[in-house]
Amino acid sequence: MIEPAHPVLSIGKQCTLLSIARSSFYYTPKGETEINLALMRRIDEQFLETPFFGVRQMTWHLRNEAHLINEKRVRRLMRLMGLMPIYQKPNTSRPAKGHKIWPYLLKGLRVERPNQAWAADITYLPMRRGFLYLVAIMDWHTRKVLAWRISNTLEADFCIEALNEAVHKFGPPEIMNTDQGSQFTSFAWTDRLRRMGVRISMDGKGRFLDNIFVERLWRTLKYECVYLHAWETGSQARAGVRDWMEFYNHRRPHSALGGKPPAVIYRQRIEQNQPDQQVQRVA
What we know:
By secondary structure, the chain is of the alpha/beta class. It is built from 11 helices and 5 strands; from the N terminus they run αααααβββαβααβααα.
């Protein structure tokens, strides 16, 4: 996918063109066994159905399906996948040292126009012989995916690259909402937002319903695209996600938008709110 000796394009330029973080190129992940990869795929599928399953419940569920597995192994795999169960009550866990947790700003707020609020989240992408991570930035009002990136690490770099792309194409939002993942509480992420004057909003810990629209996006993506393929390489995964995102934004009817695709509604609402300004056309 990346050619280090390319006569024209640097490694950094190739990573940018492929929408992957440069740090991902230099990172060599520890491989997981085929058994663990199969378990991770099953955990991912089940978590979409029961996002309230913690380690103990997931372990019991897998044992009921005749998998020989203990809680320690399930905990490690769920942590590796970045999965966090929802809770009925606020979790009292404290953020990592030095990482500030910002209040949730969307409760009771009427989001009535594009770019009033964006949301970002990360999900796990299973492959035939490994896995990757996908981050997406969505416009809360129109459900349009504004930018996305794939990485083989959970470093904050690929999230910031997606944020920079979205801001470059559409301008900054008024509010950015995320969960409390370390990528989004990092100084690099929050400082970038603060320097643009964006108000930072974060879900309650373990409350995925605070970011429900992106969670629904992941469910749709996985059932309509990811689980239908067994990608061998990162470039195959990226091409598959790119094609589906293009379909989702521009052609897939959305029930919350009167059957219109998100990109159509986004453009219409932008034109309604800014009738005297030329709207940038983004493929």
